[in-house]
Design goal:
single chain; 23 helices; mainly alpha
Length: about 450
């Protein structure tokens, strides 16, 4: 049964690649996972497990943070629609171009990366602000939304893990290290930054694509298509740049304020799901008021605009629900525990850290969660550090880097979905176009862990 626990992920990935349908892949993987759980419990009739499967899906609505994520996923569609129909997007693009801030593809790419890196404190904030701000600029210069999604995603988790000491990730990792029995966890976290090869390489590769204006693999096809569709969206007159800027500032300010309040004065300890939902509601309300005051829009007209925007994100909501249910099912099946348990068995010492990175990447990719992967691997990594006398920072960097790498590539990761939402492209298109770059960075990191091991171990 142990090896069969990875069958649901293999099936899911195969169907997604074959049929180009994430929902069908998730449903198939969930069915196989639930069937294996029944067999594991001694019941060989899949139909007998139908109630449990349904309840597993329903349970995703039992978490307050999940409910906020679902509400946000739909509501952001209304905000995007308001920003677009107000004409604020077109006006902001015109202003940035005329003032010389974004006068070329290179400048546009650099602005996008800068905003993503600057907002490292909160991953959802980074993705949303970067995506919404840069959409119009990418359209203006004939750059694909898939390319935007790649830059939005690569300046999200990879950047946050490099700034781990001053954001919520640090508190989580230090707490997990402490409960696992590691002495001086703060030093290990700080030291891991230099050895965290994947995010460094991912950012370097992204910067190369911006400075050289070169794209490779499937992304090249989308770039060529976007170049043929340059021009302002028809039927939407130019409005005021403030109709874009003010709601964005309200959202950014709202997120930081709510993080501060829910964290009792410490932004790093704030409630991210509350912050992003409340701030989005506030920004959407402000966008509505600004549009209404122009006299060009009626209440009923704006309700229709909002409904149309929200309906476009229903499929993404379904993906999120199924992804969370699938992750919960795999946890019961014991997939992550099985894969993680392989790490410490009979490995030459020079291969331990690279294998930790590789297996953490696979678990994160399969389950779509970097936090869950860290929770699995840190309790495994600490005994390995203590028993083999390995450098804590070196081992920890492989766990954190692998967790981010897998999450970065995974089609069922919430960051992958949100990057697509913020950029306005299909989730599967984003995964397909980003994967070659992520694999290049991941492969490079894997090799560097071997090389570094000769000097450190």
């Amino acid at each position: 049964m142990d090896w069969l626990t990875i069958l649901p992920q293999i099936l899911t990935i195969a169907i997604v690649l074959w049929k180009k349908d994430i929902i069908l892949g998730l449903l198939s993987g969930l069915f196989i996972s639930e069937t294996l759980i029944l067999i594991k419990d001694g019941d060989f009739l899949p139909i007998a497990g139908a109630p449990e499967t349904i309840e597993r899906i329903v349970s995703t609505f039992g978490s307050a943070s999940n409910i906020r994520l679902f509400m946000f996923t739909i509501l952001i569609g209304a905000l995007i629609a308001f920003l677009r129909h107000s004409g604020g997007v077109a006006a902001l693009v015109k202003m940035l171009v005329e003032k010389g801030y974004a006068k070329s593809k290179k400048r546009t790419g650099l602005i996008t990366m800068f905003v993503g890196v600057a907002l490292f404190m909160e991953t959802s904030l980074s993705m949303l602000t970067t995506g919404l701000l840069s959409r119009g600029l990418f359209d203006k210069f004939g750059m694909s939304r898939e390319r935007l999604a790649y830059l939005v995603d690569v300046t999200c988790a990879p950047v946050s893990i490099l700034f781990i000491v001053v954001n919520g990730w640090g508190a989580y990792v230090i707490g997990t290290l402490t409960t696992s029995g590691l002495d001086d966890p703060l030093s290990a976290v700080i030291g891991s930054i230099a050895f965290n090869f994947y995010p460094w390489l991912a950012l370097i590769i992204a910067l190369y694509t911006v400075l050289s204006d070169k794209t490779h693999g499937p992304l090249k096809k989308y770039e060529a298509k976007a170049a043929e569709q340059v021009g302002q969206e028809e039927g939407i007159p130019e409005g005021k740049a403030s109709h874009m800027i003010i709601p964005l500032l309200v959202m950014v300010g709202g997120i930081f304020s709510i993080l501060y309040m829910t964290g009792n004065g410490n932004i790093s300890n704030g409630d991210g799901s509350r912050a992003i939902l409340y701030a989005t509601i506030l920004a959407t309300s402000v966008a509505y008021i600004l549009m209404y005051r122009t006299g060009r829009f009626t209440h009923s007209g704006m309700i229709k605009i909002a409904n149309d925007g929200m309906q476009k994100l229903v499929n993404l909501l379904i993906i999120l629900v199924l992804a969370l249910a699938f992750g919960a099912s795999l946890k019961v099946l014991g997939t992550g525990d099985f894969i993680a348990g392989i790490v410490g068995k009979n490995l030459p010492i020079i291969t331990v850290v690279p294998i930790i990175f590789l297996t953490a990447s696979f678990v994160s990719f399969s389950t779509g969660t970097s936090y869950g992967t860290m929770a699995l691997f840190i309790p495994i990594g600490v005994p390995i550090i203590q028993q083999l006398g390995l450098d804590p920072a070196f081992v920890l960097s492989a766990i954190l880097g692998g967790a981010v790498f897998g999450d970065h590539c995974s089609p069922i990761s919430d960051t992958t979905v949100l990057s697509s939402v913020a950029s306005g492209c299909d989730v599967l298109d984003h995964v397909e176009t980003q994967l070659p770059y992520a694999l290049m960075a991941g492969g490079g990191a894997f090799i560097l862990y071997f090389i570094a091991g000769f000097f450190i171990l």
